[in-house]
Amino acid sequence: MSVELIKGSHFRNLAIARPPDTYARLTLLNSVGQEISRCKTSVRRGQPNPVYKETFIFQVALFQLSDVTLLTSIYNRRSMKRKEMVGWFALGQNSSGEEEQLHWQDMKESGGQQVCRWHVLLEA
């Protein structure tokens, strides 16, 4: 399964007045919520509307697509080791909403074609 994270929009840094330094973590979970694999984007510094354009490959068999969840979390890196979650959404078995469930269903039925959608982050 190929996943491309294209961009974010209207990210705010609540602690200080400058735009946040953000990155995304993508985590693939099995049907009982255990981590199968994870990856993350590079940090986008000082961008309220960061463009990531990064693609990640997850090894998932077609018959497993109904049993996995892809969790996407956006983090603000505040200092060297400190981070705070900006928000998250999930696609797949435990989708975080109706739009996310529809996106996953469309992806499964797309025959290998890319299915691109915006998602609203849920608060951490």
Automatic annotation (TrEMBL):
Which PROSITE patterns does UniProt cross-reference here? C2 (PS50004)
Note the SUPFAM superfamilies from the entry. Answer: C2 domain (Calcium/lipid-binding domain, CaLB) (SSF49562)
Which residue ranges does the record assign to the C2 domain?
1-119
> Which molecular function terms from Gene Ontology are attached?
phospholipid binding
| Homology family | Belongs to the synaptotagmin family.
PANTHER family named among the record's database cross-references: SYNAPTOTAGMIN 14, ISOFORM D (PTHR46129), SYNAPTOTAGMIN-16 (PTHR46129:SF4)
Could you identify this protein by its name?
Synaptotagmin XVI
Q: Which organism is it from?
A: Cynoglossus semilaevis (Tongue sole)
